[in-house]
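Worked Example 4.2. Read the sequence first, then its structure tokens.
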Amino acid sequence: MLRKLIIILLAINAMPLVSNATTVGLTQCDTLDIARDLDSAYLHFISEQQGEFFEGYTIQLFSGNRSGANILKGEIIANGKYDAVRLVYLAPNFKIQVGSYPDIGSAQRDLGEWKALYPDAFVVKTNVPWYPIVLPQDVPADTTKAYDVHSPE
């Protein structure tokens, strides 16, 4: 009798282990089907991990009602000053924001230009959309040199 009870208890305790092993084996895959060059691997990683926004900085030009925000957005686009103006609603106000910056220094550099037109402009830390990185095409391939501090030359 005791032997049957022990066998039943062992069988009941082993059931979750068997069921977990089969589900893990079916759902887990550790192989990626991507090209072997580094650029392709990086692009695959970025496309899988990157969301639509990142934590960065932007310049806020306006905070108020919807009609005021729409008027200002239309003004900026009509003047050709900036075509990526964002209208953001954060209760209770509508905000006009421009630019996506990874650090506060680059946002502060552009802030001076915007303050000339909109004196109330300021830098805000928030989630901003990704921006394209444009690299100059006319830079020679070898633009860096390493010099040894103790070199005899």
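Now turn to a second chain, presented in exactly the same format:
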Amino acid sequence: MNHVVKIGLGAALSVMTLAQAVEANDYRISNNQRIACSRGLSPGKLNTATCRSYAYIFNVKTSEYFRCQVSLALTRDNKEVINVQADGGCAKKPRIFATDSNYSFDATETEPPNTNSFFGPGGYAVWASDNTALKARGCITIASGLGSDISKCVDMKFE
């Protein structure tokens, strides 16, 4: 009897693992990762370099996506590295299309505050295409400078 329970639990675990693997296969990373670095001088002749990079991870079935960012800050003097700090995480974003289908996706961002970011830390553009219905949606999100992001999307057909 104990042997039958073990086989049953093993089969259930295999099915759950397979279901998770199928779900994991629905995710793709965007092809447009960027890295931006800045340098600064601190009192006492310390140099600090901070680099940030981001990527978008997209569910090709549901069109929901995650914006992931990683950063590294390095502080050194003329002789040695004094401090290294790293941070990162992913934020879930809403679906681009309301129904499930077969989607393609890419995204890009403005660099950190510069002439392209009029109101704050910049913005990003997200493109998704429904490969089954032959339609695309382009969305641009920018910081309003008032605490919330403004996002607008435009639908297009390609036939």
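Notes for the reader: The chain has one domain: 26-157. Residues 1-22 have pLDDT under 50 and may be disordered.
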